[in-house]
Structure formats: C-alpha cells, structure tokens
Specification:
The protein is of the alpha/beta class. Helices cover 15% and strands 32% of the residues. The two termini are 15 Å apart. The relative contact order is 0.20.
Length: 182
C-alpha cells in the first residue's frame, strides 16, 4: 500500500505536480484534505508563477492515480465545475491496508473526539498548513501541511505505506517527520 497525502494546494498546480513526481509515483491512491483550488478556478487572489487553478484541476482530472478529496473551507461549488472528482463533503472514509482512514479538512472540529467517535486508525486533517504526525489515544493524527511556499515556511506532503507514515519536505526531499505503524 502506498497512499499520497496532500492538503491546502490552493490552486498551485506546480506544487501538486512536484508532489506527484517526487513522492506519489506508484501510489495506489492520493488523499487531498481540502482547499484544492481556492474559491473557484478563476480566483486571482494568490501570487506566484505556479498559481494556476485550471491547470491543477486538469492534473487531478487526468491523474492515473485516483484522487479522493474532502471539502475544505476554501472549496466552493464552482470548483466542482472544473474538477471531475467529487469534492466530498466534509469527510472521506478510506479503508486501506487494514486501516480505517478518516479525512476532513479540520476546521471547526474537535479532532480527538471525532476521530474516536468514528473509530479511525488514521485521522487526516489540513487547514492549519502545519505538520502534525502523532499518536494520541491509539489514533494516528496526520496533517501533511501545505505544498505552497507562500502559506508556510516549509512545503510538505505525506506518504502512508504499509509500515510507516512520512512527511517530506517537497523541495529538499528530506523526511520532516515519520511514525511507524506497528
């Protein structure tokens, strides 16, 4: 099993492409924890050369790896006009490698309570643009951060394998955090 995990791309196609090429090659599935395009594919509110929501939608639509998306607070109905994959609301449930994975964007929730209530083995959020990888009460909590350099001082994405979860620095390739699943 290999699962790519990303969040808060906010329309930055080049950063999603970099994660695909460097870390998600050969993945069985990609989980996106929301804030995909940022309030519509034609929103001009962000900066940088690789801000291109339409190109990001195209990458997702043409991905050979299935992409599961949960809706973030910056995702809107107009995003669904250009993304063929449903932007699920507001949770996604995935069963992989014998693990119950629950994904939500993470705004306006009590993560510990919800993860326990849903009996998650792995609970994925985004929203804060900050990395989290820790075990609490027998549940693994993962926030892959953001691949966008304008939103964080470190650009990251994560990979879940059969034996561990790793968060990688998108630019340097170094492992920022890791946790064994055993």
């Amino acid at each position: 099993m290999k699962i790519g995990v990303i969040s808060d791309t906010h329309g930055y196609a080049g950063r999603f492409q970099l994660a695909l090429e460097k870390f998600f090659t050969g993945a069985d599935i990609i989980l996106h924890a929301g804030d995909v395009l940022n309030h519509g594919a034609k929103n001009p509110n962000f900066r940088g050369e690789d801000y291109n929501p339409l190109a990001l939608a195209k990458l997702i639509n043409e991905s050979e790896i299935p992409v599961i998306i949960c809706r973030g607070n910056c995702d809107s109905e107009v995003d669904q006009l250009v993304i063929e994959t449903p932007i699920q609301a507001p949770y996604a449930y995935v069963f992989a490698g014998g693990k119950k994975i629950v994904m939500t964007h993470g705004h306006n929730i009590d993560a510990d309570k919800l993860a326990a209530q849903l009996k998650a083995d792995i609970f994925i959020t985004g929203h804060t643009h900050k990395n989290i990888l820790e075990r609490r009460g027998g549940i693994i909590f993962l926030n892959p951060g953001t691949p966008v350099p304008y939103l964080s001082n470190r650009t990251t994405a994560a990979v879940i394998s059969d034996t561990k979860i790793e968060i990688f620095d998108l630019d340097s390739g170094e492992t920022v955090m890791d946790l064994n699943l055993e």
